[in-house]
Amino acid sequence: MLGPSSDVAGIIAHLETLRSEENILGMARFGIVTDRAVGISNPDLQKIARAIKRDHGRALDLWRTGVREARMLAIYTADPASLTPAEARGWSEDFASWEIVDTAADLFTETPYWQELIAEFAGDEREFIRRTAFAMIAGAAVHRKQEPDETFIAYLPLIETCSTDPRNFVRKAANWALRNIGKRNRTCHAPALKLSEKLAASSDKTARWIGKDAVKELSGEKLLARLKA
After folding, report:
1. d(Cα 129, Cα 120) in Å, to the nearest integer?
2. What is the enclosing helix (H) or strand (E) of 194?
């Protein structure tokens, strides 16, 4: 039975008892990297994370195993107050799957230096690291409710700068960030929609897709009604 005192070896052994080749095949169909996967769903991993509780040192050790499920548990049980910039950057060097990126992005946005990471990651040419920047913006726009709206409006030029990056995981994350900023509230909606319309009229195919998709969501009746309420 796993608990707060469980060590890495015990956790890995428990994960192996839950191995599912069928789930591994299913994950691969969703573009999840499965070469080191055991095939455990994220809801089940979250239950395990609740059982073993937060332990930052152990989380770092779980990450080092390279096992997909262990790395997800590392993210779920790491302490954002203890995670150093060097540790966050070290993890990012291993990013090779959108799923790990998007989960880690939520952890990174809880750190005090999250904006520093966004600037750094957006300037990185590697696809999954650049995606991390925009996944962080998308998540922070929703979860960091006390953050001034100006923080997110100030990210719109960064989205525009990277809007011509045609790589799938970058363009989708840039679009996600743009939409989430626009959905945050009325203050953020107007400038986000303005940029969306500008990108939708771009001669660049990627920027045009990002803009058109964002315009569609940010002009939706349900969203506009919520923002007016």
Report:
1. 9
2. helix 186-200
Q: For residues 70 and 12, is the Cβ–Cβ distance under 8 A?
A: yes
Helices (H), 40-113: 42-52, 56-64, 68-77, 85-92, 98-108
Concatenated DSSP letters of 55-74: -HHHHHHHHHT--HHHHHHH
Of 161, 229, 146, 162, the closest CA to residue 189 belongs to: 229
- What are 7-24's pLDDT values in tens digits? 999 999 999 999 999 999
Closest CA to 111 of 133, 82, 72: 82
Say how many C-beta atoms besides its own lie within 10 A of residue 101's C-beta.
25
Provide the 10 A C-beta neighbour count for residue 80: 16
d(C-alpha 185, C-alpha 94), whole Å: 35
Answer whether 0.85 is exceeded by the pTM: yes
CA gap 124, 179 in Å, rounded = 22
- Contact in structure between 2 and 44 (CB atoms under 8 Å): no
Place of tokens 């230096």: 113
CA distance 150 to 172: 23
User: In terms of Cα–Cα distance, which of 167, 173, 179 is closest to 206?
Assistant: 167
Please provide the average confidence, as pLDDT, over all residues in the chain. Answer: 97
- Helix (H) or strand (E) run with residue 28 in it: helix 21-29
- CA distance linking residue 174 with residue 159, whole number of Å: 6
Contact (Cβ atoms closer than 8 angstroms) between residue 138 and residue 106 = no
Q: What is the mean pLDDT of residues 131-149?
A: 97
